Amino acid sequence: MSISVKKGDAVKIIAGNDNGKSGTVLSVDPSKGKVVVQGDGLSTQTHFVKPRNAQEKGGLVKKERAIDVSNVMIICPACNQPTRVAHKIEKNEEGKTVKSRICKKCGASLDEVKASKAKAAAKKAAPKKTAKKVTKKTEAEDKE
Prior knowledge:
The protein is an alpha+beta fold. Helices cover about 15% and strands about 35% of the residues. It is flat, with a radius of gyration of 24 Å. It starts with 9 loop residues before the first strand and ends with a helix.
């Protein structure tokens, strides 16, 4: 069974206790057909953790629940609507075949938008080079 939901996708829950809420996918388990979604107001599992040594604290720990893949829909970043996913097979610049995910409502690529956001974040994080080149003429001008 192929799963069209990937880690980092924004999804909306369409069935169950959290119907209508949205969040981001933390992990995907294709063998079980489950996804773990993180978001505000989503129901969580509570577990009791026993302290292993004197420095650790025990108590109840909340963690996100796994939800079946059939109960979530991907939110398209281009049109901000929950949508089904189509697949398109194309050839890239090197001639290799690439399978991409497409929004059924607006036709935008779900993979390219995510990749362009990652590139934009990397550009913001990269330091800008604004050093001035020093030549013999500029040194002589500075001395005068």
